[in-house]
Amino acid sequence: MTERKRTPWVVGVSGASGTPYAAAVLRGLLAAGESVDLVVSRASRLTLLDETGIAFRDAHWREDLAQWLGRGADGKPETFARPELDDVRYWGAGDLAAGPSSGSYPVKGMLIVPASTACVAGVALGLSKDLLQRVASVTLKERRRLVVAVRETPLNGQTLRHLVALDEAGAIVLPASPAFYTGATHIQDLVDFVAGRVLDAAGVPHQLYRRWEGELGSSRTPREASAGD
Description:
- Helix content is about 40%, strand content about 15%.
- It contains 8 helices and 6 strands; from the N terminus they run E-H-E-H-H-E-E-H-H-E-H-E-H-H.
- It has helices spanning about 20-30, 40-50, 60-70, 115-125, 130-140, 155-170, 185-200, 220-229, and strands at about 10-15, 35-40, 90, 110-115, 145-150, 170-175.
- Strand 1, helix 1 (about 20-30) and strand 2 (about 35-40) form a beta-alpha-beta unit.
């Protein structure tokens, strides 16, 4: 029997605030049976430590990732069952000889969640200063899907021009902008909406949020029903 060829999604995590978005996307990919190659920038480790208290270490990445993915958006540990990480491969941010740094390395595409303005600028300008930016540049040159979940507000003219450049290069620019028509009652619902839109852009099936079906007020139904019980 021929072994199934591994073709992962590369998930890049930059230093912007929003590490729960990355965790939700990773959980969604793994739940869908997707392979994942993970790149965590140096700046994102500081953000992760600040937002979750988790120190992400190269030598213990599997243990630290499991802890991260088990944590809810509200900071509570063990909110989610820790997923199997057998099909996750981790690459250090400084490893420019990593597999995904080459266009000949087979991947489905790349999801940058969250994407800082510095990351956006680096990718738009083709700087490739670290592995995250290098993989994004490779993704664009190979005409693979690149989703950039930018997380910043307000946006200045320079960043807007960089985002337009990414759009023109073929990337999908997806602001981390939660919606409320889904009937969110918890911070995790808002995080899952953004993560779900990232997965939508990648064409990965999920059940992270309730989709709009054209019926006004439908998002309030579960809340009203539970209030009356």
